[in-house]
Amino acid sequence: MLQVTFTEDGFQVTGHAGYAEWGQDIVCAAVSALTQTTVLGLRDVVGLGDRLTEEVRAGFLTCRLPERLTVAERAQAKLLFATLRAGLIAIAQAYPGYLEILD
Asked: For residue 15, what are the contacts with CB-CB under 8 A and spacing of at least 6?
């Protein structure tokens, strides 16, 4: 099962959904697209650039906000996290048993 864990300062994705074989799994692909878009939004749209902490490897992604953010940066980051969470909930509802969302 694929797990996405949200924390106050970011999120972490671990595992494999198991919906299909590695490289063919649409649940993993959908989660990957949403999480990578969120990271891009934080880096390029919010402007966190190199201040964003991220680690990516097979079956694992972690993204953490920097300690110091402006009020505007924090608000934009929270909006992106809320949008990510909404998209993940939609995927979890459409494909029950393959994605778990933890807070």
From this structure: 1, 2, 3, 59
Rounded CA separation 47/36 (Å): 15
| 13 residue type, one letter | V
Residues linked to residue 100 through DSSP beta bridges, in sequence order: 3
* Parallel, antiparallel or unpaired: strands 2-7 and 99-102: parallel
State pLDDT tens for residues 77-96. Answer: 999 999 999 999 999 999 99
Domain ranges, residue 50: 2-102
State the Cα–Cα distance between residues 48 and 95, nearest whole angstrom: 33
Domain count, the chain: 1
